[in-house]
Amino acid sequence: MNPMSLPSSRMLAFVAAMGLIVSPTARAAASPLAISPQERNWEVQVGQQEYMTYAQRGEIVPHQSQLYAVLDSVANAVASVADHQYYTPFRFILLYESEPNAFSMPGGDVYVTTAMLSYLRNRDELAGVLCHEVNHDIHHDMYNVYEIAQRGPQPIAYERAAETEADRAGAYTCAKAGFNPWGMVWNMRLHRGTEQGQQMASNADHPGDDQRLTALIALLTGDRGTFGKFKDDVAASVPLLNARAFAQSPTQYRQEDPQQPPPQMGPYPPPPLPACYPGC
Q1: Are 28 and 165 in contact (CB under 8 A)?
Q2: Relative orientation angle of helices 209-222 and 182-191, to the nearest 10 degrees
Q3: Which helix H or strand E contains 190, and what residues bound it?
Q4: Distance separating alpha carbons of residues 215 and 233, to the nearest angstrom
Q5: Cross-strand pairs, 91
Q6: How far is CA 23 from the centre of its chain?
Q7: What is the 3-state secondary structure of 29-51?
Q8: Cα–Cα distance, 115 to 102 (Å, whole number)
Q9: I want to staple 94 with a disulfide (CB 3.0 to 4.6 A). Which of 32, 61, 134, 275 is the partner?
Q10: How far apart are CA 43 and CA 37, in angstroms?
Q11: Element (DSSP H or E) covering residue 91
Q12: Minimal CA–CA distance to 18: which of 209, 212, 273?
């Protein structure tokens, strides 16, 4: 995710560039625990390959870093809701990168850059980012895209629907995890009208920030039973304790984390690594 817009999926932009997006009805939604062995193996392999790439570059922040105290305090609560909707527990990983960004990879890995962690202002904004991303995995968006790619170009519709659905489902995930889903709205408001935000709005593959903002506000104000107790008040949100954590996390931690297991490659070929999505 770029500071200029709420995260859209890294994987979906790759497909958008290739013109491979179809209607969300192209593949019936399946239970996260009832997917085929081939799909599960494919997802695990793609996720492991991406993890290995970052590990080899030395970009993964190991868990000795104090920065995980900031991330995990929110991520653990999100995982307590999201884990039972997916076939494997989610894993939240920090990357040394200078651009604010967050994205998910199939197999349950959600990446957040150190620049993103230093950029977000409060726990609810961080929760909104994580809740959006876990739902891309829960909905198996990358595998859906992979299947579409095998059949050739189709009408561009899937990405818009997937991003809107990740916003909608993410709001419910945040609420269940005890976070204010208005944090997603605050991010959109903060970044709307910027140069990169305007570039995203002009991209036919992506729903504009205004569209997503309108839809999300309508959801939060319309479902009073779920969201009525949450207020649109950014000043009331608990700040992230970023400055202290960054001061206590020296660059000596920039090395591969020995606690992370080596990846095991599966039998199914993954697609080319996706280009950075517009929310990078």
Answers
A1: no
A2: 150
A3: helix 182-191
A4: 19
A5: 109
A6: 21
A7: CCCCCCCCHHHHHHHHHHHHHHH
A8: 10
A9: 61
A10: 10
A11: strand 91-95
A12: 273
- The helix (H) or strand (E) run that includes residue 54 is helix 37-57
Q: Which residues pair with 122 in a beta bridge?
A: 239
The residues with which 94 forms a beta bridge, in sequence order, are 112
**Residue bearing tokens 């570059």:** 57
The upper half-sphere exposure of residue 136, i.e. CA atoms within 13 Å in the direction of its Cβ, equals 30
Task: Count Cβ atoms below 10 Å from residue 138 Cβ, excluding itself.
Answer: 22
Q: What span, in angstroms and rounded, lies between the C-alpha atoms of 35 and 37?
A: 7
What single-letter amino acid sits at 243? A
**pLDDT tens digits, 130-172:** 999 999 999 998 888 788 777 776 636 777 788 899 999 999 9
- Bridge partner residues of 109 (DSSP): 91, 105
User: Can you read off the two tokens belonging to residue 226?
Assistant: 């779920």
pLDDT tens figures, 231-261? 999 999 999 987 667 766 655 445 444 444 4
123, two tokens: 């726990």
State residue 91 phi and psi, 5-degree precision: -125, 130
pTM, two decimals, is 0.78
CA distance 171 to 86: 17
Residue 133 contacts residue 102 (beta carbons within 8 Å): yes
CA 210 to chain centre: 19
Residues 108, 137: contact at Cβ < 8 Å?
yes
